[in-house]
Amino acid sequence: MATREGDSRLSDLKLACTDLRTLLKASALMEQNLKNMDKKFDIIDETLTSASRRVAPLRSLSMATKALETRINRAVTPALALLDNFKRSESIQNKLLDLSSKLSNEKNMNKRLKTLIKYVDCVDQLKAAISSIYEEGEPVIQRLQEVVEFLSRTKATDQYRTHRLRETLITLKALYETEVDAMRFEGLLDEALLNLQDEYESILQQIKHQNIVDQSQAAHKGDDQMVIMGSNLGTELEIEIIRRISQTLAAEDCLDICIDIYVKVRYRRVAKALMRLNPEYLRTHSPEEIDEMAWENLETAITLWIQHFELAVKAVLVSEKKFCEQVLGGIMDGLVWPECFVKIADKIMAVFFRFGEGVARSRKEPQKLFKLLDMFESLEKLNPAFSQVFDDESGTDICIRLRELEKLLIHASSKVFWEFGLQIEGNSDGVPPPQDGSVPKIVRYAVNYLKYLATEAYSVPMARVLRTEQIWKAGILSRPESDENLLRDAVSNIMEALQRNVEAKRSGYRVDKLALPHVFAMNTYWYIYMRTKNTELGKLLGDQYMKKNYKVIAEESAYMYQKIVWVPLVRVLEKDSDLELESKEAMVGLIREKMEAFIKGLDDVSKRHKGYYSIPDADLKEQIRLATVRLVIPAYSEFVDAFSVLLPGKSSYLSPESVQDLLCRIFDGGEVKLKRRGSRDRTAGGSSAVDGGGKDFRRTRSNTSEM
Fold it and tell me: Are the C-beta atoms of 193 and 285 separated by less than 8 Å?
């Protein structure tokens, strides 16, 4: 076993040795082949190196040629584009001339506007072409010049070609330097821009405000259903062409010209629209001129001012603002149109503000209060619309001027009101009281004045004026009273001033006219009470206030009038305590004396009534008459019944009916003729003819008794 295994291993070793010898021989052969190949590669490398040295100049020449071609193309290509722009601009100019000719011959407005849009398009195209030539010209010429200098320096081409290229450069440079500026500022483009400015102005001039007069007339007639509002200005085509022209002019550095034309033309249009309302009153604006105006004319002017001011803001300026935004809104991101609109509006508003300020600064006459309040109330109502129209920062100055006008109106209204009270109180100085005891004009004026002020139309703005003035004086953090209390206190002050005026006049009568001051007070206070009863003024002051301060005084004055004038006449008929002790003859004489004294006194009272005592109020006169009849007739009837048998004849005295008739005629202002009683017997019931419906005036402090 061991021998066999050793033989097998020996055999394997011999075989491995044989393989190794074969492998070594192959390796040696391969090494020999590699050495041969190295020699061949060295030969090839030497050949390639030699070829490379021979090809290198040709490769450098090829690269230089490509670089030169690139450099030339880089300069020539823009030059060719520049020449194309020149050709394009020439074509556009020819088209512009054709469209210009059509515009001048076209009479139809709609077709003309459509042609004008094409004209604007051509202007924009020409502008773009010229701008391209202007912007690209210098770089193109600079590159061509560099190429010419390079070729001249390197002599990369023949002299003929270099010469031609140099001449082309000179020609292009001369053309650029002479023609481009002319095309930009003196050529057809400039002429086209001038034409656009004319067309711009013409179209703006043609766009007018409509229905201004109709809205004004409706407002003047008090048509509540008529809503004042702005209208659309211009058609869509007109707005489009104006907008396009505006943008074209702005792009051509003509923005200032565009704005000037727009503001000038649209201001004239707005002014002409308002001039159709015939606002001649606006020519008078200084306080001195307004003071010289007749009151009727000034009243009418203020009424028109209120209507026209509202119309200008709500209709005219609203339309103008919308139109301005449509036309100029696309320029400079919308920063231009608010300024343009304010320039137009400022000139219009200045005229209205000037008149309003003149009225507010004019003399503070009482009758102006109501028109001042009308102006103030109209501005208050107009504030929302005004703020909406001038909501931009550029309209701040106009809003400030409106607030200043409101302040002037508040000051003026307040001053007129308070000075009215001072004028009432000062009216008694040097002014004699009415010689017939009638109601003075100042009382009639003041009562009607305050009644009118207490109406809803004026009480609300007057209270607002008083509240605003109080806040200004006390500070914004103060707590003012309610509007009703403020107005009540203010009106009470005027009424107290009026009462002091009446009392001053009452004390101005002569001492010998004892009854006349009471007749005057009765008439005046009764007038004040009755004219304010069941009115807004009476409700504002309160019924208790009016009764306490006016009705009671009128009743007391009526009592004093009766006591001074009629009670002495009645006392003549009173029986004397010792009359019955006298003899019959003496008694008859005394009775005749009393009757004659009564008739004489009645005649004197009649003359005083006719000459001095006036009771203009029919209701008051009737009540005084009834009270007098009730006082006099029963006493006279009693006297006649008691002593008629002692009188010598029935014709020697007046019947009670005749006396009553005389009393009626005394108060009616008729002719009073005292006639003795005739043959007709006095009826036993003569005293029953006296109407007992009248109230006897008794002195009372009651605040609720009716006269």
Answer: no
